[in-house]
């Protein structure tokens, strides 16, 4: 009975995340031009018993597509002390790999890698005439239609889902749009997932950038669309998208990242970041290595060694990234095309036309009246998506005995994943806003999942056997997603929702102190038209010296013992306040795991209007007592 209640509660939540309206399309146009000096510092510390230690790096290449161009100059790679041997080769995917080898490793090896790169993202209208299904794929591209252990494109569940998503489309772009929209709204971002393959991602509904890439690739390949995996770096310099009288600030973490490139016969390889952007990546991306999946693209950052029989320890690895923007010109205009509270998905203006079928997406702000009339004759990608999600929800209810199976409402394939689906994940995650609550008593909820106490400078990457007594460690995709929230010029706020009256006890934030002095506190505000409004209660002050400076993020509790407040059901805001000169970061999660799309906001410290939104959600926890 308890399990049944849990499934029922979590199914009520799934209808929110499965609704197609929950993706927020932003049509973006403009230019991003940057010149960046990039440096990577890597230190490998030896331990007793190691031998034949090797380090591998991939030389970034110049790349051009209709929306994104990368021009690499002045690549330099230096090892201290110098290796006994240094080899250069080009692998089967065209990646240029440099491998340095030490037969007797020194106590410590320092690596300095640097280059300059000119990145250009140009978001003009893209025209494509490719039909769907694709008529012909050349031999040198067809390799990227294959299934792998990480990208199980031939799995029945993947094939059935892909078929459902693209059932009503006639252009390749529309097919890709359907699939990427599903992925960006379906996967909840977590820093350290258990597995990275497409099937695990589908069954749990969560993962990091590798999971987004592998599930996207599997669904697209199952639909007959070639996809390759790209590994590289993202830089944490934010960029602003102007929308009417407000800004949407887009930010990635600084670190290693995985994304995809999709092949169009008339456009070539087009980059997608299936976490947030379609048909382009921003010029904060640096492209390094490509392959069929993340098991193949392992060369950049790969460490290998052998060891004597008595040796049990592993070398320690520290990696730091530095990026200096020598020039950075960003002019972006954005327009909201469909509202919803889960995940942002940015598009340029696309016109996809083949014969009498035409798709203009996400909407057609620049389309003529005649074009709009012609579009209306063609089945919209949105209609197929709407039908899919409707059938998906019906199927899940059938699978868990909430509704009888009828001929007119057959369950989709996902309803057959009874043993482990996103339904179970939502319950495990602890996101309870839409879950039926007890009549009264203690309760805790929020965006609660983040890697506590993790030192991102030394990420926990396991050593794995590599045959013939060798071991290896691949590069880490763990990134520190955090915002400096105690700037003297900026203040930040996070929305939350309560569905029953609550006596507030405390609010906890995932913080890390780097230094400084002063005090922190929280104001809880009413919601006024989707922004922080009147302050209804203020927490007790926390002196900065009470926070630890040890590596990692952890919960900092702000108590309301002296200002206990009865809160009616509704929308509220956490507003972080500070005085003095604290240096504190607040951890965030990509996407919108539990909150509304524009529920993370910021403003100048002396401004009145909280009109500026962020593309992520801060990690927070609300504790209190439900009241009748």
In terms of topology, how is this protein built?
Elements (H helix, E strand, L loop, with lengths): L1 H17 L4 E23 L4 E10 L3 E2 L3 E13 L4 E6 L5 E7 L5 E16 L2 E3 L10 H4 L13 H10 L6 H15 L1 E2 L8 H7 L1 E2 L1 H14 L4 E8 L4 E5 L2 E5 L4 E10 L3 E5 L12 E7 L11 E5 L8 E23 L4 E5 L2 E5 L2 E5 L7 H8 L4 H19 L22 H8 L11 E5 L18 E2 L4 E4 L8 E3 L5 E9 L3 E14 L2 E11 L2 E8 L3 E2 L10 E6 L6 E2 L2 E11 L2 E8 L9 E5 L7 E3 L1 E3 L1 E7 L2
Parallel strand pairs: 1-19, 8-20, 9-10, 13-36
Antiparallel strand pairs: 1-7, 1-18, 2-6, 2-17, 3-4, 4-7, 5-6, 11-14, 11-16, 12-13, 14-15, 17-24, 20-21, 22-38, 23-24, 25-34, 26-33, 26-35, 27-31, 27-32, 27-34, 27-38, 28-29, 28-30, 28-33, 34-37, 35-36
Helix pairs in contact: 1-8, 1-9, 3-6, 4-6, 4-8, 5-6
What does this structure look like?
A hairpin with a 7-residue loop joins strand 35 (600-604) and strand 36 (612-614). The model is unreliable at 1-22 and 363-435 (pLDDT under 50). Helix 1 crosses helix 9. Strands 12, 13, 26, 28, 29, 30, 33, 35 and 36 form a nine-stranded mixed beta sheet that branches. Strands 22, 25, 27, 31, 32, 34, 37 and 38 form an eight-stranded antiparallel beta sheet that branches. By secondary structure, the chain is α+β, with helices and mostly antiparallel strands. It has nine helices and 38 strands. The chain is globular. The chain has a domain at 480-626: Jelly Rolls, CATH 2.60.120.
